[in-house]
């Protein structure tokens, strides 16, 4: 097995990619759970989305550390072979899902893969095997083969670029509101009073369709070009703007 010092950074990069895959697919696109879905004290959508954001920020930090380590290895002219690089990243991807399964699903119980399923344990085990154990074994197999070649490195680079484009494309797709949903979901900052919310909506010609009792989360019918102005009037999240939570208009979570 190749024991080059840079492998730990490739492994870390794989862990981060596993976390992004988890967050983008399960938290945002499929919406099977949020990071803290099963924490009794965390019930409102604002807090759930906030902690999902912290989770993705942590994944960005891991990504930057991994890329920095590989860049330093390249600068030192270390031999970064394609097959071990791909193996370490694949193993890291699997390790993330195994750790998440053991810690988050079973020991801490902060969420499950599909919390509204009649058999959540089966979903947890299936996810652990397919996206955790299997990639980890494939990565281990690649790491224990010979070092690889320049063509292998090019194939690995192409794979990483493809994964990056796929993640970016998924995020871009999530920015678009559903075609059959003409409404905009807005979350206001904690402490905003109903009168302040009403004034903000009136200023942008928004018609309220639904709201929570304290008007902290509202669904409105409003001109699309006016959405950005709500950030100047106390909004924390505005669906359809892409910043800071572009997929928010897709949300099916109960508030």
What is the mean pLDDT?
A: 81
Strand content: 5-15%
Q: Compute the number of structural domains.
A: 2
**Low-pLDDT sequence parts:** 242-255
N-to-C terminal Cα separation, in Å? Answer: 51 Å
Q: Tell me the helix content.
A: 40-55%
Total strand count, please? 4
Read across the widest sheet, the strand sequence of neighbours is: 2-3-1-4
Shape: elongated
Query: How would you characterize the largest beta sheet?
Result: 4 strands, antiparallel
The SSE order reads: HHHHHEHEEE
- Radius of gyration in whole Å, from Cα? 21 Å
* Total helical segments: 6
Helix and strand composition category: alpha+beta
Tell me about this structure.
- This protein is of the alpha+beta class.
- It has two domains: 7-174, no CATH class; 184-250, Alpha-Beta Plaits (2-Layer Sandwich), CATH 3.30.70.
- Helices cover 55% and strands 7% of the residues.
- It has six helices and four strands.
- It has helices at residues 7-29, 45-75, 82-107, 120-143, 150-175, 194-203; strands at residues 184-188, 207-211, 217-221, 235-238.
- A four-stranded antiparallel beta sheet has the order 2-3-1-4, covered by helices on one side.
- A hairpin with a 5-residue loop joins strand 2 and strand 3 (217-221).
- Helix 1 runs antiparallel to helix 2 and helix 3 packs antiparallel against helix 4 (120-143).
- The protein is elongated, with a radius of gyration of 21 Å.
- Residues 242-255 have low confidence and may be disordered.
């Amino acid at each position: 097995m190749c024991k080059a010092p840079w492998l730990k950074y490739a492994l870390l990069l794989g862990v981060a990619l596993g976390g992004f895959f988890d967050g983008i697919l399960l938290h945002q696109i499929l919406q099977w759970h949020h990071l803290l879905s099963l924490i009794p004290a965390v019930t409102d959508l604002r807090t759930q989305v906030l902690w999902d954001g912290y989770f993705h920020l942590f994944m960005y930090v891991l990504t930057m550390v991994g890329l920095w380590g590989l860049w330093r290895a390249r600068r030192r002219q270390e031999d970064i072979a394609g097959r071990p690089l791909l193996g370490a990243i694949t193993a890291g991807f699997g390790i993330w899902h195994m750790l998440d399964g053991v810690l988050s699903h079973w020991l801490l119980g902060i969420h499950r893969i599909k919390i509204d399923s009649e058999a959540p344990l089966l979903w947890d085990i299936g996810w652990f095997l397919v996206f955790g154990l299997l990639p980890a074994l494939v990565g281990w197999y690649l790491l224990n083969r010979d070092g690889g070649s320049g063509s292998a490195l090019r194939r690995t680079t192409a794979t990483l670029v493809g994964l990056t484009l796929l993640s970016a494309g998924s995020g871009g797709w999530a920015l678009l509101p559903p075609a059959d949903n003409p409404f905009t979901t807005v979350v206001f900052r904690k402490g905003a009073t109903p009168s302040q919310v009403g004034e903000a909506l009136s200023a942008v010609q928004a018609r309220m369709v639904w709201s929570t009792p304290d008007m902290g989360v509202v669904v409105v019918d409003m001109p699309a070009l006016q959405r950005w102005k709500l950030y100047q009037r106390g909004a924390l999240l505005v669906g359809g703007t892409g910043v800071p939570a572009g997929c928010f208009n897709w949300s099916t979570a109960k508030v």
